Amino acid sequence: MHVFEGKQAVEELGWLLDSTVTGLALHADAYGGLVLEATCIPRADKPVRELRMRFTEVTRFDFVWTSEQAFFFVPGYKALLLESGSVYVSLDPYDDRARVPDTRDGCVIEARSVRTESVLKSDP
To answer: Measured between alpha carbons, how far is 65 from 11 in angstroms, rounded to an integer?
Structure first.
């Protein structure tokens, strides 16, 4: 397993492309801040079996989902480390080539920090 924080964690979010999110959990931490934990399974041809993400001090969680949609394929994503040091992630970006937040982006997470755990297929 590979564990990353900060800029390296944002780079690890590249595994989100064409992945399937299998779980989201949002809860308060001991200090009243919000924590979002998410798990996804990358495409079968990737060396990563599972990507676990932990967003701390969440300042925005903007997801829309209905039962008419499958839960939850990620056809595109945008992951940015902002000048403030915060993390911006969209799992439904308006334009995934744009390297700035966009009000038209969907499924947005903004948080003070992110930590990723990449479980490799070769891990026991």
So the answer is: 26
